Amino acid sequence: MTLTVYVADGCPHCAALLADLAKRRVSLEVVNLSSMPGRIADVVAVTWERRLPVTIDHERCSVGFQGRSSSFAELGLQPPPRRAR
Q1: Whole-angstrom Cα distance, residue 84 to residue 69?
Q2: In order of start, what are the domains of the chain with their CATH numbers?
């Protein structure tokens, strides 16, 4: 199984998660939202939180690493506007 991990430049929690997964040799796809802002909508579609890192496997979504995360605003990311329900 491959994980998809959404990260951004300057996020210490993203860096810590990636280091931990590399140490454990976990197969993963890394999506860096700093260089691929068009993928922000992917994260917004699966979690109402606007925080990183986000880890997605085939059936679960997890926000943060070791109880910590960085907000989109702290990282200079602009999520798409929320849709009215």
Answers
A1: 26
A2: 3-70 (3.40.30.10)
